[in-house]
Amino acid sequence: MDKAAEIFQSEREKLFDRLADRLETAYNLNRKVVSFQANKEEPVYRWFKYKEGFSSTLVKYFLSEYAPKAGKVLDPFAGAGTTLFAGQELGWESYGIELLPVGAFVMQTRQALNEIDVEQLRNISKKVWAEIAKLKDYQKHINHISITKDAFSDETEEYLNKYLTYTSKIKDKHIQTILKFAAFTVLEEISYTRKDGQYLRWDYRSKRDLSGKPFDKGKILTFEEAVKSKLNQIIQDLSPNQTTSLFEQFDNTQVDKQPVKIIEGSCLEQLPKLKSNYFDFIITSPPYCNRYDYTRTYALELVYLGYDTDQVRNLRQTMLSCTVENKEKVEYLEQFYASVNQSKAFESVIEAYNNSEAMTEVNSILDELNKLGKLNNNNIARMVKNYFLELCFVIYEMARVTKSGGYCVMVNDNVRYGGEEIPVDLILSEFAENFGFNINKIFVLPKGKGNSSQQMGNYGRTEVRKCVYLWQKR
Ligand SMILES: C[S@@+](CC[C@H](N)C(=O)[O-])C[C@H]1O[C@@H](n2cnc3c(N)ncnc32)[C@H](O)[C@@H]1O
């Protein structure tokens, strides 16, 4: 390209040209493998779908293809623990950080499954209903937040509280976890709500004052029906005489399985506490920069796990910024890095962020579009800025904790706001390069995501890339 043409290239185009040889369409990584859908046949996913997850096939593929032998694997956005448990099955020592108690609870349940006595579970689950019927007093475990109020009928609500009162007294912690999990998985089914995008949609039978076209979610199961059927499914899937492949999951004879290590909290705080050069592999997928609010989608589950209004609000703010409600965390991060004597690290991250020309371009274009009223929400520019800034910290730490020669695999989607494509894959890869990773590949899924119909109308249909990045520590 001649000099004059180069001057008119945007910073994003320049970055694209520089990294173009790393982009590769990956025909073996279809959408199914990257999304949770390929997990359908696995226990736990059959019982509770964590739709934000990726597949264990993906994890096993990268671990077997790129590592000569099992070592230590980390996922700083562990979700329901796909990386951890797939790694465990292959004999890896697995570590995960997760902030959302929903993911942490699913991981604890998976851990408990490795040690469960199925016969005991079968016996206790037969007794549950008679024992609950005998309960005179029960505690009020469920304290609703505004977005879950009246989600259950009075009868279901009472049953839920009684069930939690009863199960919390069960001595065997593994059995207690599985019983608690069984009701956790049916909360949507027994409620007047349906998870719909990032909000809960309300059925016309709820006590709420609802406007708009009435929504009928169909049959709403009673608490007892739903939990009994879930427990039966769980027990059947776990039973040793199961002849299907489901049981192979729990067959411990093949490799030496090590317990997974689950760290509850924000990876922005937890990663800096981990040892340098410790991990052989990281396989992760952060929240996407798409306004998706986990605390709304999983509001019923959070309330069930005992979270109140303040705790949910706090959680929302602590999550990686990916909604328009998230406020800036940079001051907090500065103080945090100072408190662990790592102010230099803080400065390096800020410098890398500020030095990214493509990032600066994205931020200034979004600010401009915001001023012109061309973004759907005033806080989109802030969200994007902070999304990348926070991930810059995460990537710095991931590079620090990965051994030389080790790999980091990250799954993420590009996004578009106000018609401007934000090349998440390229910008994050450039950060990674700054912190000591080589960008080996950016695998692009064969078919990207379409645009929302609103954006299609305005800017014509183009696709944004969905990618899996492969970085290797120098
Ligand atoms: C795309 S999901 C990961 C799903 C995971 N790969 C799986 O298969 O289950 C992103 C996860 O990051 C978590 N998360 C968001 N902010 C976080 C933070 N600051 N620290 C740790 N986890 C966070 C979310 O709760 C969510 O579970």
Description:
This protein is an alpha/beta fold. The protein has 2 domains: 9-98 and 253-286 and 328-473, Vaccinia Virus protein VP39 (Rossmann fold, 3-Layer(aba) Sandwich), CATH 3.40.50; 118-250, no CATH class. It is 45% helix and 14% strand. The chain is built from 20 helices and 12 strands. It has helices at 3-7, 11-19, 31-34, 56-66, 82-89, 101-113, 118-134, 154-167, 173-184, 223-238, 267-270, 294-297, 299-304, 309-318, 330-339, 343-355, 357-371, 380-401, 424-434, 453-459; strands at 23-25, 72-75, 93-98, 193-196, 199-202, 261-264, 279-284, 402-413, 415-417, 420-422, 437-444, 466-473. The strands form 3 sheets. Strands 1-11-12-8-7-2-3-6 form an 8-stranded mixed sheet, sandwiched between helices. β2 (72-75), α5 and β3 (93-98) form a beta-alpha-beta unit. The two termini are 31 Å apart. Mean pLDDT is 92; it is low at 451-460. The site of S-adenosylmethionine has 22 residues, from β3 and α11.
Write a brief structural summary.
The protein is α/β, with parallel strands linked by helices and 474 residues long. Helices cover 45% and strands 14% of the residues.
